[in-house]
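Before our next group meeting I need something from you. Please put the record directly below this note.
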Amino acid sequence: MASSGNHGTAKAKDLRVLLPFTTDSLRIPDKLAKEVGAGSDGSAEVLIVGGHSKMWHVQVGSDGDGAFLV
């Protein structure tokens, strides 16, 4: 049986769909940004794994309004 412990993975409630044709940054909760290891400047590089083994390299950015995916 799989472990129920949190191993640094994001909870499903924080995930959103990012449409490929959008030019907007996707806002994420500050708590999630901290969990993925965003530094004091609010930046980090993360790998998102989706359905059918698709992977996206994204960056976490931060501004005065909070954290976002770039």
Remarks:
- Residues 23-69 form one domain.
- Strands lie at 26-28, 44-49, 55-63, 66-69.
